[in-house]
Amino acid sequence: MDDLYIDNIDEFVYDQNKIVTYKWLSLTLGVHVNQAKQMLYHYLEKKRKECSASQLHATYLVSGKFQQNGNTCHKVTVVREDQLEDTKSKLIVTASIHVYSIQKAALKDSSPLFSTDYDIIKENLDNCSKYSAIRCAIATPRTSEEISRLQSLAHVTTPVSDGQAVTSKPSINGDMSATKPVSQQAKGIVGLFASKTTSKSKETSKEVKTESKENSATAAVADKPVNKTKVPNNFFGKAATSKSKSSAQDEGKLIKEETNSQASLSKEVEKQSSNSVVKPAPDIKEELPKNSEVPPKKTKENKIKTKRLEHSDSENEKSESQKKKRRRIKKPQPESSDEEVIPDSPPSSSAKTSLASPHKEVKKEPANSTENTSNVRRRKKRKVLKSRTSRDEEGCIVTEKVYESESYSESEDDFSKSNKTQPTKSTASVKTVTGKKDDEKKGHKKSPASSNKGSKQASIMGFFQKK
Amino acid sequence: MFSDISSLRGLTLLSMPATEGPVFTREISSSFVNQSDRYKSSDRTFNRQYAHIYATRLIQMRPILTERAQQKWGHSVPVRRLCDIQMGEQCCIVGTIFKYMELQPSILREISEEHNLLPQPPRAKYIGQSDELILEDELQRIKLEGAIDVQKFFTGSVIVVFGSEKNDGKFMVEDYCTADLPPQRNRPDLCKDSFVLMVSGLGLGGGDADSLMGLQLLVDMVTGQLGDEGEQNGAAKISHVVLAGNLLSHNTQGKESLGKAKYLTKKTQAGSVEAVRMLDEILVQLAASVPVSVMPGQFDPTNYTLPQQPLHRCMFPLSSVYPTLHLVSNPFQADFDGLRLLGTSGQNMSDIYKYSNMKDYLDILESTLRLSHLAPTAPDTLGCYPFYNKDPFILEECPYIYFCGNAPTFQSKLITGADGQEVLLVAVPEFCKTQTACLINLRTLECEPIRFSAFSTEDEEGEMDISH
């Protein structure tokens, strides 16, 4: 074989001042590891012959049978050149000696060796055994079809077992999510590359739980097949499924979903209870997996009411993918906390209410119902702090701040700010209230949409509401 | 032995490059069957009391012990229930041991305000001079005295004692007997040498760089990159690798992060994330070359109670595409070509270590084997799932290889049972501390340690304690 490698090694060692280990050389030059070891030896010999005062330092690997205190063991060790003879003499039988690395500077400890190998392996993770001396026939990566097949098998088996478990207990939100640290499935990562249609069933626990919650939900909740709508979060870019899990988890709430005329995905719920510890997915930092998942997911019946406040988790700010679906009450008038489980005070809701709550209104105009996949308008319902005026028994107009649910559409955010009320006094007969009162009445129709943040601040615009 | 096999071929690498490097094919164990289904959790209802475990344990072990008792002391000796024994009559009773220890931490005492006690600091051993043994069965309990060594036993072991009840209501023991080894299948005849490599306590994320180099050497050796032809040939005979727990270091479970409220740790990444990433990279190198079984341990991201469920494969995106990666439960049971292997990541053994006077992990291994129970101290001092129908830790078939991970030092021993069973006991040491792994030859049931080191000159200061 030609001696080009000598020049290569020369260049690596002297010019680039690298530590050339046999593994690094083998992966860089694309040769068998044993050849790489021999190349290093050849180079070392050559250089030693040429200039005896060379600055080259070498480390060797010595392995063999070693005896100590009457016990034998197999010892594998990397030694510096000066320790080579010493170590060799201690071994009863020497199994192998070869050059481990060559470098210009003398090494004090083994961490540079390790980091060299670590770096080169990281670059070549998918073919790290290509140049090794052992081939294993069964160690070939699975194809994506096999993976999806395995996942669907697992999906089929788990709902059965989980169903019994969950229905037997009163489901506690925190409990369930805690016990399912692995609810996010590999399919999340695999699903990123090949959109899988099977949804993993760890969420089945969630599902079942949600179903049980469903049953216990208020009677007002109509049991319609619900689908999740796509979240209008497309403008945040592609979302990794793993992120969806995290974000769903962030929300920490079970989500109520509503019917959608189109097929929708159901993964949100599943993802919810996932644990952020298991997030090895290489740095896909986007959110909103839901978008990517919409097509392949099956529909599920999910109506979940959630009481839990958001769990903090790392990507909380960008938790657009949380879908808070609120149940739209048939009655037009806003009740206080009865139907709305989450006392979603506008300031705290921040990003959550923002894009993430597709909301279907029963009495909505048909136009809205076709907006499923658009990300422009969403009917949402929120709990808003409003002032209500009423007449006292003494005849005074009393203004009270009250939480009311109000529906708003995202696009109409211009006139939204008015709903944040100032604290009122009981005897105040402020006329400003009247403007807001109008708002309430419109609340169920196309009310002035709130801003994306959902926080309403009193502004002069309140006087110029849409009538 | 591995080192002998590795030295069969001559040294070739201190020479000019050859034209072609040798390629060896990995010996694959033709049938690796994971038999750990009994440790997989089916449902997860924690509504039940833990007392059911003891009840079912006793019910399952009573027939075995009765038979042993009759074998040992003859059929004429009656085997009675505690409620039926009469004073002065020699009989056998079967029951569960309860060891009363003064020093055993009791949560009730800790939180009780009337004593105003500070919580007890953790100790290495909780045994004391005044400990007592009490035998319990389904209905009653009785204190034991006599020819029974209090410190050898621990809570949860089911035994049969022979003796008589005295006037003061205590039972005077003349002899006792344990269930001994369960029946064992016939040993299959393997024609070729086939090795299983066992490592435990990798301790990733612990910030210890030395053990990382050793780990890299281990991976290189197993995948056939390290060493000369002889060694590579030997490494090709390794048909399976078992990682027995504590893949992550206990540093990843920092107390601060565990104790803090979730909203405070919002933006911080858990310590284990980086460590799991490193583990995935190591596993992908291994899985590309050899079948690997990964068991979770005390500090790994899985549930705390025994049986620990397998780590989830979503944590290993790079390596889980390989079919050679097996994520298994703790305890782990498998058949290699018909040879049964059983072991844990060490939590049960270290728990028994705390509550008995045995110092040697091999002794503890042997005593659990002779008691025919994997984790007798569960659920008393070792967390476990509230089983109801059956106790999956009872050994029904005797393994050929019985191991525990995360032992302080490497030890191995071959023991034999009353009916001719033979078992190789292996205490796998922590790799992050000792840089030692174990190679077990399936054909001869021999175990050899392998030590890895880098740049250490005088490191053989009696760290190893190998007893054969």
Automatic annotation (TrEMBL), chain B:
Biological process according to GO: DNA repair; DNA strand elongation involved in DNA replication
Domain DNA polymerase alpha/delta/epsilon subunit B as annotated: residue spans: 196-411
One GO CC term, this protein: delta DNA polymerase complex
DNA damage in keyword set: yes
InterPro entries for the chain: DNA_pol_a/d/e_bsu, DNA_pol_D_N, DNA_pol_delta/II_ssu, PolD2_C
UniProt key word Iron-sulfur: no
GO molecular function: DNA binding
Keywords: DNA damage, DNA excision, DNA repair, DNA replication, Nucleus
Primary location class: nucleus
Short name of one Pfam family: DNA_pol_E_B
Compartments, as annotated in UniProt: Nucleus
Family assignment from sequence similarity: Belongs to the DNA polymerase delta/II small subunit family.
PANTHER family listed in its UniProt record: DNA POLYMERASE DELTA SUBUNIT 2
Protein name: DNA polymerase delta subunit 2
Organism listed in the record: Erpetoichthys calabaricus
Gene that produces this protein: POLD2
